[in-house]
From TrEMBL, chain A:
Naturally occurring in which organism (per UniProt): Brevibacillus brevis
EC number(s) reported in the record: 7.1.1.9
Identification of the protein by name: Cytochrome c oxidase subunit 1
UniProt domain Cytochrome oxidase subunit I profile: residue ranges: 40-558
Major place of residence: membrane
Listed GO biological process terms: aerobic respiration; electron transport coupled proton transport; respiratory electron transport chain
Pfam families: COX1
Family statement drawn from the similarity comment of this UniProt entry: Belongs to the heme-copper respiratory oxidase family.
Subcellular location: Cell membrane
Superkingdom as given in the UniProt entry: Bacteria
InterPro entries with a match to the protein in the record: Cyt_c_oxase-like_su1_dom, Cyt_c_oxase-like_su1_sf, Cyt_C_Oxase_1
Automatic annotation (TrEMBL), chain B:
Spans through the membrane: 20-42, 48-69, 81-101
Pfam family, any one: COX4_pro
Protein name from the UniProt record: Cytochrome o ubiquinol oxidase subunit IV
Protein origin, superkingdom: Bacteria
Gene Ontology cellular component annotations, sorted alphabetically: cytochrome o ubiquinol oxidase complex; plasma membrane
Source organism (scientific name): Brevibacillus brevis
Molecular functions per Gene Ontology: cytochrome bo3 ubiquinol oxidase activity; proton transmembrane transporter activity
Membrane topology according to the record: Multi-pass membrane protein
Keywords from the UniProt entry: Cell membrane, Electron transport, Membrane, Oxidoreductase, Transmembrane, Transmembrane helix, Transport
Protein's cellular compartments: Cell membrane
Major place of residence: membrane
GO BP, sorted A to Z: aerobic electron transport chain; electron transport coupled proton transport
InterPro entries the UniProt entry points to: Cyt_c_oxidase_su4_prok, Cyt_o_ubiqinol_oxidase_su4, Cytochrome_c_oxidase_bac_sub4
PANTHER family: CYTOCHROME BO(3) UBIQUINOL OXIDASE SUBUNIT 4
Amino acid sequence: MWENIKDFASTFFVTGDPLIYGADVSIVLSIIAIVFVLTKYKKWGWLWREWLTTVDHKRIGIMYLIASLLMLFRGGVDALLMRLQLAFPNVEFLNSEHYNAIFTTHGTIMILFMAMPMMFALFNMVVPLQLGARDVAYPFLNALSFWLFMLGAMLFNISFVIGGSPDAGWLSYPPLSQNEFSPGPGQNFYIWGIQISGIGSLATGINFIVTILKMRAPGMKLSKMPLFSWSVLSSCIMIIFAFPILTVTLALLFLDRFAGAHFFTMDGGGNPMMYLNLIWMWGHPEVYIVVVPAFGIFSEIVATFSRKKIFGYKSMVWAMMIIAVVSFFTWAHHFFTMGTSASVIAFFAISTMIVGIPTGVKVFNWLFTMYRGRISFKQPMLWTIAFIPCFVIGGATGVMLAVAPADYQYHNSYFLVAHFHQVLIGGVVFGYLAGIYYWWPKLFGFKLDEKLGKWGFWFWNIGFYVCFMPQYALGFMGMTRRYYTYGWDRGWADLNLVSTVGAFLMGIGFIFQVWQIAYSIKNGERDTTGDPWNGRTLEWSIPSPAPFYNFAVVPQVKEMDDWWATKEAKANGTYKEEPAKLEPIHMPKNSGIPFIMANFWFLVGFGFTFGWVWMAVIGFIGVFACMWARSFQYDTDYYVPVEEVRRTEASLGRVV
Amino acid sequence: MAQHQNHGGHHSHGSMKEYVIGFILSIVLTIIPLVLVMNSILSKTATMITILVMAVLQFVVQLVFFMHIREGEKPRYNVQTLILGLVIVFTIVAGSLWIMLFNKY
Ligand code: HEM
Ligand SMILES: [Cu+2]
């Protein structure tokens, strides 16, 4: 009996590495600390009522934000561990298997559990406010999406202390990811973590498309909609077409592993290349899914901080819509070197270069908007300006990779690693950070400290170039990706050391940002106007932090950049004050079902990961029970009385 | 939100009968290929063609019985989305064939 338990525990828990034991201890300690604080201050009820069951898009946005920052930390620690290992030749800090696991979790976490939720955080924080709506189209579904993401991410993350991490790369290519070469639960964690959060992503895509098409304030024609909302629409269109491909691909891989199917095996009629073909049909749109909202953010920020209407609004909209479609026609550039016909290669090389065009158009539009504007260099604008050169270099190296014959040289070298980090950090991360700085006051009611922010900004930026520029050179010098160590004779030592220093500079930048948030919670400049940046769009017309119903009176939109037009009219004295008529506000009720259902999904995933079918069955029963319960819930909404609206507005300093 | 407005009953989303028919059809269309493949009943080409036909029918069943493609006040969005969906489905299938057939050894 005892022997059995010991046996089980030694395979169930990851053992043998001091780093892991350290992590075990810190996890247990933080759980104890959280439970202790919640109990001591009697906060369990508050946690349940205000957060776990909330359907308010702003709170869901905040939870996405917190989760994504935690994941940025985890992914960042992974990155630093790898850079430490590579700092000098012949380092024995991580062994090869550990290195494999770390680049796999780093890549997967950064894209699926950091970039995606940070993007959803921004969708939730901004879109309904920008549209003049009181919530998203399906608030319950929105909460469900969040909790599916969260539990999927947790499932993936526990793999490093329980069962063992996946280690077949962030896209988990077979045959390496098949049972034969990856027998442990690691790959199953990968599959189920992504599957569960993927359902959430798909639902979010649907939710925001409907919100944008159906919930705009009266008068806001699509042709007057702010560009960030357009970018969300573009991104969501890609989500609803791309994520099902991912779901099916991973389901087929799971069938191979679990049920002995032969979709991607080497024998029995399977073909591993089919997996690459399918996963990149999702994978390429995925990079556009995360980068297009960043374009939307930059468009808002450039206009606001240049005090000008965005240059070329229509071309911006077209560029984003074209990207949404063309991004589905370039996937094969990720495996040019696997071998296929020349015409295939030519087609995909050209289509790849074509997607560069709309992106170039956008860069010029931003520059023209700034040209002769009265630019103020506040934090959001700083990140925007830093983004432009960074993304231009990243775009240029991307086009170099698209030149198929040359790709045979660059493919899977450090040149590629530098390229994709340049677009992912310089485009996605810088963009989202800019957006977070920009919209932070609207959500929290105070600004983030400028001075600490600037320290963070410069550490990130300088660190970025110090880290990744040497990697382009290392690529030319023959260093390939996923190398865990190298010898002195290669001549790669100096550049690798420089690169590691750069990575740590970025790490310091992140610490400054955490400090900045903590500092600003206490000392940040309060935003009493609701319009701290002199903004142009509707979200700046309401008080900060936005009340839970967003708009006391639904706005009537007349112009593009309607709030700016209102402010101008007020300044000119041509503004006609219409008497605001308060009405009871129709709002959705909180629900615990999304949280509970996501936990059952976790059971499903955990059960399948370890091959415990009974546990998966219990999970599925729970999921269906939740659906059943929800189907017969009729009391799902309520009205906020006029008196309460008046009181809330008054407490925020507004008279209506 | 807007539960009250939407469920006011001015149009319904299909009847119980429709859902049951759709459900049965989609299950039958799934079982047929499974049985054919598991028991190797037909020749390879015939199996492939049957699977393809079943897939197309499945697509139609889903659209008609569950997505209510025939209803809706503003069919313009429906048609636009359907066309984009078809383009992408076509790209997935034809593109995969184009890329993969070269590798036939
Ligand atoms: C913050 C600074 C970052 C550093 C220092 C860093 C460093 C690294 C390193 C050393 C590797 C492994 C290279 C190899 O051995 O092949 C890697 C891989 C990767 N990184 Fe990062 N990274 C950073 C941020 C990011 C971000 C923000 C993203 C995505 C949004 C990202 C996505 C990836 C992906 C997808 C891989 C490939 C993983 C694989 O090979 O399977 N990284 N990164
Ligand atoms: Cu690509």
